[in-house]
Amino acid sequence: MVENTNPEGPSYRRLQDPRELAALAHPVRLGIMELLTVSGPLTATELADRLDETPANCSWHLRKLAEHHFVEEAGGGIGRQRPWQVCSTGLAWDESDATPSGLRAGRALEQMMLERQVTRFHQARAQLHDDGEEDWADAATATQAASWLTLDELDALNTEIRTVLERYGDRLVDPSRRPSGSRLCEFVAWGTPLLLPGVETAPDQAPASTEAGADAS
Fold it and tell me: How far is CA 134 from the centre of its chain?
């Protein structure tokens, strides 16, 4: 669960080392992090069953993630039957003070995650329709909008959207808060200038005149 943002609060671990970002940029490792976040602790064997991988491969990726303190042993078990858990449920990175290598690693990770999320959206919609779950399929929608915003408005709107999306965040780590019949749902949102060819920044508006007109009487 990585965001390119600058969140407030102690629950987020800020990623700055490009080696940390590069360590996450692998589909199996992202899958492991996701499953441990929502279903952990899990063993390498359990992860292998869910990810259609071998236990040996999952064990290797778990050790790589552990090297960068993304996961840790949860205690109990031996060998591939040892359960693992995430060290933090919130990860974030920020481009503002990143090195060139950090920018490359962060953007590569961001692109991989967005591609996974778009693919999952299409797969979920198709499977829900195929399974006859039309109510859930209709509720799973994509929304797109474009408008002219100032820098402050763009920043404020992104903050507002983030606040809305985090409304039920406590349910991710506390199963007792999950309503009966609820499903794990994913939201992806971004707000950024739309850089279309030939479309320039709106020009400064001339201030309205405040001078009173001449009295004709």
Answer: 26
